[in-house]
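Task 17 of the worksheet. Students: predict the tertiary structure of the chain below and write it out as structure tokens. Keep your answer in the requested format; marks are given for formatting as well as content.
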Amino acid sequence: MKEVGIITLSELNDMAASMYGDLVKAVVDVERGILVVDSELHVDQEQFLLEQGSNQKDLWGINLYPQKYGSDGFIEFDSMINIRPRQQNMSRGVENEEIKKCIIGLVLRKVSE
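Model answer:
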């Protein structure tokens, strides 16, 4: 597991190849601007961030597809940790468009070619 300052596509590709083949699981703290990657489960990344002082309401699970960088398919909003009835998020996706925009912006700032 790794908290990302800046990560390259090459590094993401290596992580994907060693874990799932084409994707890297990640969790974003939208309040603190943190991205954590390279773990088998989103819940492990979520727990890591909670231990670092993040609030659960600010944590969202995503998948990154390095081969699709530059397209809409680069970020997939799909994680069990996203199911949050108390935040009106009833699916594994991210239903709030403002939160989605924040996640996209954060990921694009952290990933470089």
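Marker's comment: The CA atoms of residues 9 and 113 lie 5 Å apart. The chain has one domain: 2-112.
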